[in-house]
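Example record

The entry below shows one chain as it appears in the dataset: sequence first, then structure tokens.
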Amino acid sequence: MISAETEARHFNRKRQTYCRIIDRPSPPAHNRPRLNHSARPTVSVLSTDDVTLPPALERRWLAALSPARQTQLLGWPDARARHRSLLGSRLLLYGLRAWGFAPQSLQSLHHPPQGKPTLDLPVDFSLSHCEGRVLCALSAIGAIGVDVESTTESMRAVDFRRYLSEAERYWAGDDPQRFYSLWTRKEAVVKATGSGLARLHEVQTTEDCRARFDKRLWHTPAVSVGSQHVAHLAVLHPLTTLPLEQPRLEDLRQND
């Protein structure tokens, strides 16, 4: 494990950002080729806008889920949160279809009370949403986690002593962007492992875009989501490319 003193020395060198974005921002989905179905990537990320769903579309998308999941979502009083969750499910289906899986794949989507959601498929996935943005990450090479946060609300690392180490708080200082960079990397790791936020403080980030948790080293590359959001992945294998697709609502509706 990397000590706080060692991390502090690293952070003190130029105090530069932890992670680089692997690829430049991708153009909108309608301006570039689709994912090649015959050459399935090992990891891909899908991103879409946080939009309000028309009632008829919400009903159709709910019907594509298992009865248990429908009951869960219908019990949510916050319609906006319900719509974001449905958008995440449709991003997942969009990605699965691009990888050659059946249209009925969401029927095997399980949301256990504890742990991460699963599919009865040889694919791991992670969903995240916040104000303005919904993300889905898929992996064919093991566990994956993703987290996205809106940066419109100013946060300071000093207020999160329970979750951030002394070295991390020092590196972030009063910069909200750096705080969100740390937070999304840590949360992506606990989501990849199915751990809860209660263990967020155990994730030790490093300056080389990696993180240590439960004696394992995770790679936490940044995802390009624009200036108003910060997002990171967590994977066990280093990535040289990161396919990023940005389908619009009309693209997601094509799978109805």
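Notes for this example: The longest strand covers residues 43-49. Confidence is low (pLDDT under 50) at residues 1-18, 20-38.
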